[in-house]
């Protein structure tokens, strides 16, 4: 942009860009204006615009440009101009701030705070920010507002690591700045927020300033004090680890009193201020216990909180506001999370406190859960923590608490039953589109909290639930026989579903170490009712005619989902490795149902699983199917339950009849992953039976695969290639078969089982799959290509070691040759289409990246499988390896580097392949064209900063540098190829050396050993670059002592290190890297 443009013209263009209705004018204005933020030379121009313009849109544009320049070109801004930028922003806010538009103030503040953080370690006025901004708080009300905005913004800025900051600060450097800010200024800022609150007039005056001060206090308390950010989505929030320097402020009763007074004054006047005050109190209640100098002061602090909550609850002050109500429930929950029950009960306030909390809980339970459901979660969580330690206290000291718990239990169950009476009717449910939500459990977070509450007086609770369940069971049984109206059945099924979910949560909450016989009796009473219901539903499903692909009743879907959830909970407590066949739970179940042990339970469960899979999954019940298949998988992969499953009649029937005609869910368009899991599970059960030696392995395996064999033969018999892809019946059959095959091969974890599958698969079915990939890839049929490629990727995977052919067997070579054909055909056809479309598409991931990632993964797994002697291919002139490498690199080069790094699956597959190629096929890597070689090395350098793949990158660079080191000792074609690359790009590896060096020094990597491993090979092959780097680091130190320390550290780094890459020498160097890193970081 020309800097001589007049201010009025610029203002007009800003209005056109931000507010213009003509798209062409907006684009022209944007094209003219945007270059202003692309160069560090335009800082002064931005100053002039902000100073000389009265148009807010021009001012905000110039401020945005300044922020963009700081974010992208900070190192190019001269130090004097950085200081000038800081002073300009400060002066603008101080002198003209009250007259600026609010969004201009926000953007200028962003520039001011960003510059403060970036310049924190430089010489300048940056660390005086609080002293300078504190003057705002003493000036006019408008200045005070701006001052609070600045302090809040700088606190947030220092507490986070944005992409812009990561360009100039490593993780360690960013944390060091945050720590310095915490130690120097954060307490002062918090005190300023408190003093501002103290000075403000009572509400309703100064509402905006009061809210700003509370936001500032919240930001201070929410600061990441120890560099271990907690997840606010977890149990609300973690303990706040304020430094010892904060002790006086925290222990001072006036601090809490200030927040309490602010709430009391604002509760009936300003709900937003009241809610923000409670949020601050939630944080205050989460402060670490060890901050207090004595137990007495800590207890006094707790009692202040209790007194305040009792007062709020007694007067119901401010709780009519939903946000305030919700944060108040969080406050109560945090009080118990951070303090012991004995401490709460030690207060004279406890009887009033627990009574008021119980009344609040009962009121919340009786309210509309769609409104208060999230708040109720915190209250249930509170009660769960209150009752958990009761067994450790004297019995007579917890009587009142137990009384309240009993009321809460009953109210929680019955209130939901009452609510179901007035909720959605069956006709309304038929119009719902979100199938997932129908079968998903309602208020799942609640059910995680209730087990401890319900099991406190479990005998009474179980009896209460039984009294509710038994009449409904009778009604359900009668309804099956009498065909009750749909509305009545719908409500009955929903009521039963709710009680089954609650029962499952309670039974699943059994803790073996503390479980008593009485509790197991109660579990048996409840479980027998649910299993009775399960038997009713199974009998009904078997007696009714199949409903085809039509929708099942919604109430039935919900009930079946609840039953599956119950089985999962029961499994964890009483089936499998933790099962106790002599448990008292089976005594009650035997008396009522004849279920004497977990084997009979498994038989009932297997029947229910089969029924669910036979009637859902096409147009409804997909969520139930997913949960059911996961349950079956969990049972099958249990050591004891997996062996028992195969002996059951129902499971044997599933092993003999497992096609789409038997299990309707397999026809569902969204059931691809479920089909794979289903066949993986069935195959696992089959192999468990084979391991018991009950029948001939090969014959039984072939019998199991017979239906799949017939399907594949039928598909292979289709004469027309076009029909194979375009005929929905044929293509769907092919896709389904591929997903089934993938599930089966995934379950072959041993040499014996894998060999059985390979002998069945090769060579009979290989031509069909080769034909399928040839036709599908040429037609761009991704629905066929993707499952086929994924099957092959699983077929060639050798983790755990299972592909172990006999020494004289050619199967390993044959497997790779077929794999190479698949890779070459797919990549060649896909690249041709991609290039024809101009290397762009509406959905690049689907059109190119997804299939490419699977091909790269397939090739990588083949190279690392250790079942192929790849030297054979070159020896006999077979181009399978050469062709696979060529097309793999071509398709990888077609993916832009930014997308390669952005898509996790793509990056993992690519860098894993590069790791394997550099480790075992270095000669192939150096033989590629120079542009390809540069691309490979450059991407390895880029990948060093990506957490998911950096280990592959370091290994690949190490292998490549080691290959260079060893080949340079001889005059071979490999050494000449490498030398040719280096001659054309001499800075390629020195840049990698510098990157690895910086990462070791500045990043807090969890595995420094792996990160430092390639450093020695890079140093030995780039000695000149290393010496230059060493010289630059030493000379960049202005302090003579630090300069000498850095020089000494470098000398120790290479001390006793020999110019070899033997393991002993490597280990010595790696240990010295750790010492070197510690020495340099201690000098900073």
TrEMBL record:
It comes from Rhodosorus marinus. Its main location: cytoplasm. InterPro entries: ARM-like, ARM-type_fold, TPR_XPO7/RBP17, XPO4/7-like. This is Exportin-7/Ran-binding protein 17 TPR repeats domain-containing protein. It holds the Pfam family TPR_XPO7. GO terms for biological process: protein export from nucleus. GO terms for cellular component: cytoplasm; nuclear pore. It is found in: Cytoplasm; Nucleus. One of its GO terms (molecular function) is nuclear export signal receptor activity. Residues 430-669 form the Exportin-7/Ran-binding protein 17 TPR repeats domain. Belongs to the exportin family. It comes from the Eukaryota. Keywords: Cytoplasm, Nucleus, Protein transport, Transport.
């Amino acid at each position: 942009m020309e800097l001589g443009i007049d201010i009025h013209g610029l203002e007009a263009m800003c209005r056109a860009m931000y507010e213009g209705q003509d798209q062409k004018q907006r684009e022209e204005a944007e094209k003219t204006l945007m270059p202003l933020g692309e160069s560090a030379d335009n800082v002064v121009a931005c100053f002039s615009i902000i100073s000389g313009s009265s148009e807010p849109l021009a001012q905000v544009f110039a401020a945005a440009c300044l922020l963009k320049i700081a974010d992208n070109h900070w190192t190019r801004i001269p130090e004097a101009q950085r200081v000038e930028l800081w002073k300009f922003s400060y002066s603008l806010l101080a002198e003209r701030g009250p007259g600026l538009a609010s969004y201009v103030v926000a953007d200028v503040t962003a520039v001011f705070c960003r510059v403060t953080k970036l310049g924190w370690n430089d010489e300048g006025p940056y660390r005086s920010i609080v002293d300078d901004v504190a003057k705002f708080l003493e000036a006019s009300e408008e200045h005070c507002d701006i001052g609070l905005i600045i302090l809040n913004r700088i606190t947030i800025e220092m507490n986070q690591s944005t992409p812009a900051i990561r360009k100039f600060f490593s993780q360690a450097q960013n944390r060091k700045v945050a720590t310095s800010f915490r130690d120097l200024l954060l307490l002062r800022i918090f005190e300023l927020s408190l003093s501002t609150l103290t000075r403000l007039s009572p509400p309703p005056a100064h509402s905006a300033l009061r809210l700003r001060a509370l936001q500032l206090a919240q930001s201070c308390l929410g600061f990441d004090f120890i560099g271990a950010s907690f997840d606010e989505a977890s149990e609300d929030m973690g303990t706040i680890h304020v430094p010892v320097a904060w002790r006086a402020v925290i222990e001072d009763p006036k601090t809490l009193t200030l927040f309490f007074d602010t709430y009391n004054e604002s509760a009936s006047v300003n709900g937003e201020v009241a809610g923000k005050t409670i949020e601050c109190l939630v944080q205050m209640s989460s402060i670490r216990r060890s901050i207090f100098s004595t137990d007495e002061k800590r207890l006094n602090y707790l009692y202040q909180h209790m007194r305040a909550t009792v007062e709020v609850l007694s007067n119901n002050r401010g709780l009519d506001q939903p946000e305030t109500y919700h944060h108040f429930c969080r406050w109560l929950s945090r009080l118990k999370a951070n303090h012991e029950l004995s401490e709460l009960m030690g207060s004279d306030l406890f009887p009033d406190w627990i009574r008021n909390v119980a009344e609040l809980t009962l009121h919340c339970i009786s309210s509309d859960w769609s409104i208060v459901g999230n708040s109720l979660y915190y209250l249930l969580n509170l009660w769960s923590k209150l009752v958990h330690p009761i067994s450790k206290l004297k019995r007579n000291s917890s009587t009142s608490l137990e009384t309240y718990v009993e009321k809460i239990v009953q109210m929680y169950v019955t209130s939901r039953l009452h609510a179901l009476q007035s909720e959605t009717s069956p006709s309304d449910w038929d119009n719902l589109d979100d199938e997932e939500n129908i079968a998903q459990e309602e208020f799942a977070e609640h059910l995680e909290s209730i087990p401890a509450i319900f099991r406190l007086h479990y005998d009474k609770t179980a009896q209460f639930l039984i009294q509710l369940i038994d009449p409904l069971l009778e009604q359900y049984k009668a309804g099956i026989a009498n065909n009750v109206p749909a509305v009545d059945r719908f409500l009955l099924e929903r009521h039963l579903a709710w009680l089954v979910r609650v029962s499952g949560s309670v039974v699943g909450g059994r803790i073996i170490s503390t479980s008593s016989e009485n509790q197991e009796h109660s579990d048996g009473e409840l479980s027998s009712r649910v299993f009775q219901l399960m038997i009713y539903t199974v009998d009904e499903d078997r007696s009714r005619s199949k409903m085809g692909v039509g929708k099942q009743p919604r109430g039935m879907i919900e009930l079946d989902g609840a039953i599956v959830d119950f089985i999962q909970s029961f499994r964890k407590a009483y089936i499998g490795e933790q099962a106790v066949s002599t448990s008292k739970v089976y005594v009650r179940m035997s008396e009522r149902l004849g279920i004497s042990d977990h084997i009979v339970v498994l038989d009932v469960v297997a029947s229910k699983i089969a029924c669910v899979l036979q009637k859902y999954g096409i147009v409804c019940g997909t969520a139930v199917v997913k949960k059911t298949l996961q349950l079956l998988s969990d049972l099958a992969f249990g050591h004891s339950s997996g062996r028992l499953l195969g002996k059951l009649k129902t499971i044997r029937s599933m092993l003999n009849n497992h096609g789409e005609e038997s299990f309707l869910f397999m026809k569902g368009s969204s059931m691809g992953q479920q089909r794979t899991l289903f066949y993986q599970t069935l195959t696992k059960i089959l192999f468990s039976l084979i391991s018991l030696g009950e029948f001939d392995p090969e014959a039984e395996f072939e019998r199991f695969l017979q239906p799949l064999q017939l399907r594949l033969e039928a598909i292979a018999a289709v004469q027309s290639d076009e029909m194979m892809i375009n005929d929905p019946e044929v293509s769907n059959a092919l896709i389904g078969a591929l997903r089934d095959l993938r599930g089966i091969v995934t379950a072959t974890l041993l040499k014996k089982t894998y060999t059985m599958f390979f002998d069945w698969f090769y060579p009979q079915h290989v031509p069909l799959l080769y034909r399928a990939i040839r036709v599908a890839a040429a037609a761009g049929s991704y629905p066929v290509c993707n499952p086929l490629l994924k099957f092959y990727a699983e077929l060639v995977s050798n983790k755990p070691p299972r592909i172990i052919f006999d020494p004289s067997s050619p199967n390993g070579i044959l497997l790779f040759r077929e794999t190479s054909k698949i890779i070459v055909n797919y990549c060649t056809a896909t690249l041709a289409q991609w290039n024809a479309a101009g290397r762009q598409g509406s959905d690049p991931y689907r059109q190119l990246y997804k299939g490419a990632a699977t091909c790269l993964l397939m090739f990588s797994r083949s190279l690392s499988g250790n079942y192929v002697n790849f030297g054979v291919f070159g020896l006999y002139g077979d181009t399978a390896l050469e062709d696979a490498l060529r097309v793999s690199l071509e398709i990888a080069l077609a993916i832009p580097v930014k997308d390669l790094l952005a898509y996790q699956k793509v990056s993992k597959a690519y860098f894993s392949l590069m790791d394997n190629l550099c480790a075992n096929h270095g000669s192939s890597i150096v033989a590629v064209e120079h542009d390809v070689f540069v691309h490979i090395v450059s991407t390895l350098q880029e990948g060093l900063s990506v957490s998911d793949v950096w280990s592959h990158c370091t290994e690949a660079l190490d292998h490549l540098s080691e290959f260079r080191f060893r080949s340079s000792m001889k005059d071979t074609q490999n050494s000449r190829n490498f030398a040719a690359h280096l001659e054309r790009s001499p800075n390629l590896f020195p840049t990698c050396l510098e990157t690895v060096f910086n990462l070791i020094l500045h990043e807090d990597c969890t595995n420094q050993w792996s990160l430092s491993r390639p450093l020695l090979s890079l140093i030995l092959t780039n000695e000149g670059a290393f010496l230059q780097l060493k010289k630059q680091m030493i000379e960049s130190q202005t302090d003579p002592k630090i300069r000498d320390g850095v020089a000494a550290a470098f000398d120790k780094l290479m001390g006793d290190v020999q110019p070899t890459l033997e393991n002993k020498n490597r280990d010595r160097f790696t240990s010295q890297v750790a010492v070197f890193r510690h020495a340099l970081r201690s000098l900073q």
